[in-house]
Amino acid sequence: MSCLASVIRCRATAPTVLLDVSPVERLTFNSLTVLARKAMHLRSVCGQLLLTGPGPTLRKMVDRTGTGSLLPLFTDNTAALRALAEDGRTWCRVDLSAVPDTLFTEPPLQ
Q1: Which of 9, 64, 78, 93 could serve as a FRET partner for 17 with CA atoms 20 to 30 Å apart?
Q2: Which residues contact 49 (CB under 8 A, 6 or more apart)?
Q3: How do beta strands 16-20 and 73-74 pair?
Q4: What is the mean pLDDT of residues 60-83?
Q5: How far apart are CA 48 and CA 15, in angstroms?
Q6: How many CB atoms lie within 10 A of CB 2?
Q7: pLDDT tens digits for range 46-59
C-alpha cells in the first residue's frame, strides 16, 4: 500500500491504477478503507483505482460496504483495459515490482 501511495503522491503520469487483487483471499475492513482512501485521492486528480481479479469474498465485501462505485471490480486486467478504452483513456503499463524500492521511498516526516 505504501508503494501505491507513493506513486499517487509523485503524480503518476497515468492516474488510473489497476490493482490485481486475484491473490487476495481475505481483506480486512481496514485494508478496504485504505483502498477506498487511495481511490478517493486518485479521483481528486481525475484518476481512479480499478481492482482486477477479485475473488468471491472480496466481491461480497465491496458489495456489502457499498464501495463498488469507488472501487470498480473487473474479472481481469483485459476487462479493465477494455473499460478504459471505451472511456477513451490512454494507458501505460508500469510494473512496480520491477522498480527499485528506492524510487518510491516515503518522504521524510516533518
Answers
A1: 64
A2: 16, 17, 19, 35, 38, 39, 42, 70, 71
A3: unpaired
A4: 94
A5: 7
A6: 10
A7: 888 999 999 999 99
Cell of 31: 485494508
Question: Residue 105 has what pLDDT?
Answer: 47
Task: Name the one residue in this structure whose C-alpha cell is 490512454.
Answer: 90
Q: Does domain 2-91 have CATH number 3.40.50.1450?
A: no
Domain parsing of the chain, residue ranges? 2-91
When pLDDT is averaged across residues 30-40 and rounded to a whole number, the result is 92
List, in order, residues 6 or more apart from 65 with CB less than 8 Å away: 29, 32
Give the predicted TM-score (pTM) of the model. Answer: 0.72
DSSP 8-state symbol, 13:
S
Q: Which residues pair with 51 in a beta bridge?
A: 19, 73
Question: How far apart, in Å, are the Cα atoms of 38 and each of 4, 16, 17?
Answer: 8, 11, 10
